[in-house]
Amino acid sequence: MTLLDTLKCLADNNRLQILRILLNSDLCVGALAHQLGISKPAVSQHLQVLRKAGLVKGEKRGYWTHYEVNRTVLQRIAAELHALAATDHSHATVCWRISGRSTGNMPSKEAEMCQNCCQKPEELRDKPENCSPEQIEKCHGDSQTHPCTPGNCAPEQK
Q: CATH 1.10.10.10: does it fit domain 3-85?
């Protein structure tokens, strides 16, 4: 099962609560239903989803099945999320407006990205005297000066 599938499984409050409860002790459906305040059939359905994801496993004890957390799967999820959080973000910013680059050739992927997310509106270019502070902020973010004055625009916007 993929990380996405497992996270979807955990995206339900009752299933997450079941997992939290089972981390403290192995319980049967009836005990889980009592602690959660939901019906036994509802708990059974949630446990079925958790079992399919490999997050819980059941063990028959007398008349009842007691469930416990498969900590190995939980640790795998934690490791995948940790690796995702530890991803190196030292790559260069591709947005010219954010990175402040004003010379050189912009690769086509970067140019397309800049056009889609932050290209300055045509009516505000080279007309700082016509721009209200609200328009400048909308166009350029929290800037104290108008970025479209000579020397501040990216090459394709001069």
A: yes
Helices (H) and strands (E) in the chain, counts: 8, 2
Q: Which residues contact 124 (CB under 8 A, 6 or more apart)?
A: 130, 131, 135, 136, 139, 148
Contact indicator for 121, 139 with CB cutoff of 8 Å: yes
Please give the model's pTM, rounded to 2 decimal places. Answer: 0.57
**How do the domains of the chain map onto residue ranges?**
3-85, 117-158
Residue indicated by tokens 């990205």: 113
Is the separation of the CB atoms in 59 and 66 below 8 Å? yes
Q: From CA 58, how far away is CA 18, in angstroms rounded?
A: 13
Rg (C-alpha) for the chain, rounded Å, is 27
State the alpha helices, DSSP H only, in 25-143. 29-36, 40-52, 71-85, 96-99, 108-117, 133-140
Mean pLDDT, contiguous 10-residue spans, the chain (158 residues): 91 96 96 96 97 94 93 94 82 50 51 47 56 67 57 46
